[in-house]
Amino acid sequence: MLYAFFLFWPANVLPLYLLIALLQIFIPLNIWMRLLIMQSEQHKKHNLAAAIIIIALVVNSFVLID
Known about the structure:
By secondary structure, the protein is mainly α. The mean pLDDT is 76. It is flat. The chain is built from 3 helices and no strands. Helix 2 (16-36) packs across helix 3 (44-65). The N and C termini lie far apart (43 Å). It has one domain. The relative contact order is 0.09.
């Protein structure tokens, strides 16, 4: 039951755009942590999508600095 609290609590507190931005960071990290730590096999297209998301995040952070 505690997991439901942590699942829905940010949706009530954080703005929707921030929640979506955080999910875009956590999904690639989840894919790569499962690959590195748990040695689970990931599809190549999922790894490619995770890399594209991280690259877009880095490029966007440089845009936000200016």
